[in-house]
UniProtKB/TrEMBL annotation:
Residues 46-113 form the Protein YjdM C-terminal domain. This is Protein PhnA. SUPFAM superfamilies: Prokaryotic SH3-related domain, Zinc beta-ribbon. Residues 3-32 form the Protein YjdM N-terminal domain. It comes from the Bacteria.
Length: 113
């Protein structure tokens, strides 16, 4: 059996393979065994409501009616949001929505289109 590397986040030795990914069961960190894995360790992985990984420039769809804070309008279910940017924080998607303007969304309320 081949020796798997320790988790780069928590140094756990109980890592396992899942396809081409290595996964740590203790902290949940996922990474690949490529040479550029050191650069991707600092980036936060953002997933949508279905568990799909989101990246900058993706198009997402709103899955729930969302009240817009400071306004009486509502962002309707099914609204497509193009060219998203991922940011740190509680609201991890920064975007511009037609008819609403610039706004931040939580990834748990969108799905990848």
């Amino acid at each position: 059996m081949t020796e798997l590397p320790k988790c780069p986040k928590c140094q756990s030795e109980y890592t396992y393979e899942d396809g081409n990914m290595l996964i740590c069961p203790e902290c949940g960190h996922e990474w690949t065994l490529s040479s550029d894995s050191a650069a991707s360790d600092d980036q936060k992985i953002v997933k949508d409501a279905n568990g799909n990984v989101l990246t900058d420039g993706d198009t997402v769809t709103v899955i729930k009616d969302l009240k817009v804070k400071g306004s009486s309008s509502v962002l309707k279910i099914g609204t497509k949001v193009r060219n998203i940017r991922l940011v740190d924080g509680d609201h991890d998607i920064d975007c511009k929505i037609d008819g609403f303007g610039a706004m931040k969304l939580k990834s748990e309320f969108v799905k990848k289109a």
